[in-house]
């Protein structure tokens, strides 16, 4: 299976004319498009990941030969709920501007509204993710852990400043490139914080191993603290190279958590639903066993465990915030390393002096607005709005891209 676009005879028309243009999944959409000369190492288009909320492919951008990730947002117009969820994810991907948060570089040109069924987004391509790294035999030093944790928190600070809760922070959603730059991805479950504490929020969030105790205990309302809990679980997993709380069911998940933290006080369970609280009180009282965290590995130093214990706090109101976690001395070295050679916000001058940015962990200027969601009341309406939104996003200075349905790779993709 050959590659994308940069083949001769390329795009003298729209998609259908692209038959002769090789096996590329993505291709230029306009008649004036002249593909660049073939690059040296042509790599085939291939799937790189499957998640609950889409398939991701590694493809070549035919306009410049760069390797990028192509994500298909699935089941877009199945129901009003799913179409609004996809629209929200799409708007977020276009909103984000932060080094540690994955954002949309491009959206494929949609067909005419009558044929509009699928949405494809192009993002930066990162080779690996934290899950693959943790289960690999690759050595992880304390420097690795610090720089990863720093970047997770740096990205989350930005998201939380936009009032966005990610709600599915897990190692597989933290992409990593070969230089250890990390980006938070997959916003399929993300939503804007609910300021109204009486409003019911769904429990169907966060992969169980990383799910905060208040969600496990049926809290009707929860906050950005659920993401911090997930980061704590990942921090523990980085230190111990195994999942911190790996249980078979939500009830057993809570058991494992209380084995470590001890039985919570009534006060600490005030967000829980009545049934969960009663269940907890029926069991014998467990003492906390936090010193077990020192046995995770030799990398679990006093400083590391000190920070970890503040993330793994039962009561979400007493759990450390992302901003306070970033101020913990454990992360000083991670910050220094990141801004010395990995970031894009600082630079090295011609006389080899490093010019540091004034703001190491920037926040967004504007919060993410979700008022538009409330006005959408039918699938057709979402479809029209989304079509309009995508058309507006298309950068007029670049050739729009579209799917090449003749590509063998795409045919297997579609299957
Ligand atoms: Zn920097």
From TrEMBL:
Gene3D superfamilies: Phosphorylase Kinase, domain 1, Transferase(Phosphotransferase) domain 1. ATP binds at residue 71. It is an enzyme of class 2 (transferase). GO terms for molecular function: ATP binding; MAP kinase activity; metal ion binding; protein serine kinase activity. Transmembrane segments: none annotated. It comes from the Eukaryota. PROSITE patterns: MAPK, PROTEIN_KINASE_ATP, PROTEIN_KINASE_DOM, PROTEIN_KINASE_ST. Its EC number is 2.7.11.24. Pfam families: Pkinase. It comes from Triatoma infestans (Assassin bug). SUPFAM superfamilies: Protein kinase-like (PK-like) (SSF56112). Activated by threonine and tyrosine phosphorylation. GO terms for cellular component: cytoplasm; nucleus. It catalyses: L-threonyl-[protein] + ATP = O-phospho-L-threonyl-[protein] + ADP + H(+); L-seryl-[protein] + ATP = O-phospho-L-seryl-[protein] + ADP + H(+). InterPro entries: Kinase-like_dom_sf (IPR011009), MAP_kinase_CS (IPR003527), MAPK (IPR050117), Prot_kinase_dom (IPR000719), Protein_kinase_ATP_BS (IPR017441), Ser/Thr_kinase_AS (IPR008271). Keywords: ATP-binding, Cytoplasm, Kinase, Magnesium, Metal-binding, Nucleotide-binding, Nucleus, Serine/threonine-protein kinase, Transferase, Wnt signaling pathway. Residues 42-331 form the Protein kinase domain. This is Mitogen-activated protein kinase. Its cofactor is Mg(2+).
């Amino acid at each position: 299976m050959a590659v994308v676009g940069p083949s001769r005879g390329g795009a003298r028309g729209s998609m259908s004319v692209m038959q002769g243009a090789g096996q590329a999944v993505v291709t230029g959409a306009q008649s004036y498009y002249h593909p660049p000369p073939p690059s040296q190492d042509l790599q085939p288009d291939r799937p790189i990941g499957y998640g609950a909320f889409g398939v991701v492919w590694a493809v070549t951008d035919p306009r410049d030969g760069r390797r990028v990730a192509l994500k298909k947002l699935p089941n877009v117009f199945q129901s009003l709920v799913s179409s609004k969820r996809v629209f929200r994810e799409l708007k977020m991907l276009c909103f984000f501007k932060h080094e540690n948060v994955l954002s949309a570089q491009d959206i494929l040109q949609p067909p005419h509204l009558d044929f509009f069924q699928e949405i494809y987004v192009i993002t930066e391509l990162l080779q690996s993710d934290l899950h693959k790294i943790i289960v690999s035999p690759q050595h992880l030093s304390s420097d690795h852990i610090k720089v990863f944790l720093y970047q997770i928190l740096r990205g989350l600070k930005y998201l939380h400043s936009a009032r966005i809760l990610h709600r599915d922070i897990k190692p597989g959603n933290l992409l990593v490139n070969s230089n250890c730059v990390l980006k938070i991805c997959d916003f399929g479950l993300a939503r804007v914080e609910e300021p109204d504490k009486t409003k019911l929020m769904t429990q169907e969030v966060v992969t169980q191993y990383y799910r905060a105790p208040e969600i496990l205990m049926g809290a009707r309302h929860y906050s950005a603290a659920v993401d911090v809990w997930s980061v704590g679980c990942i921090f523990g997993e980085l230190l111990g190279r195994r999942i911190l709380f790996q249980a078979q069911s939500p009830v057993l998940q809570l058991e494992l958590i209380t084995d470590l933290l001890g039985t919570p006080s009534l006060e600490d369970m005030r967000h829980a639903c009545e049934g969960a609280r009663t269940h907890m009180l029926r069991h014998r009282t467990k003492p906390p066993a936090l010193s077990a965290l020192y046995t995770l590995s030799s990398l679990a130093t006093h400083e590391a465990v000190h920070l970890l214990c503040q993330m793994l706090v039962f009561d979400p109101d007493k759990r450390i915030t992302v901003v306070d976690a970033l101020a913990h001395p454990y992360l000083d070295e991670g910050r220094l390393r990141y801004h010395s050679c990995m970031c894009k916000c600082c630079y090295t001058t011609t006389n080899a002096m490093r010019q540091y940015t004034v703001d190491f962990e920037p926040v967004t200027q504007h919060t993410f607005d979700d008022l538009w969601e409330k006005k959408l009341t039918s699938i057709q309406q979402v479809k029209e709005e989304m079509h309009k939104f995508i058309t507006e996003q298309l950068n007029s200075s670049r050739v729009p891209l579209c799917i090449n349905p003749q590509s063998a790779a795409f045919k297997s993709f579609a299957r």
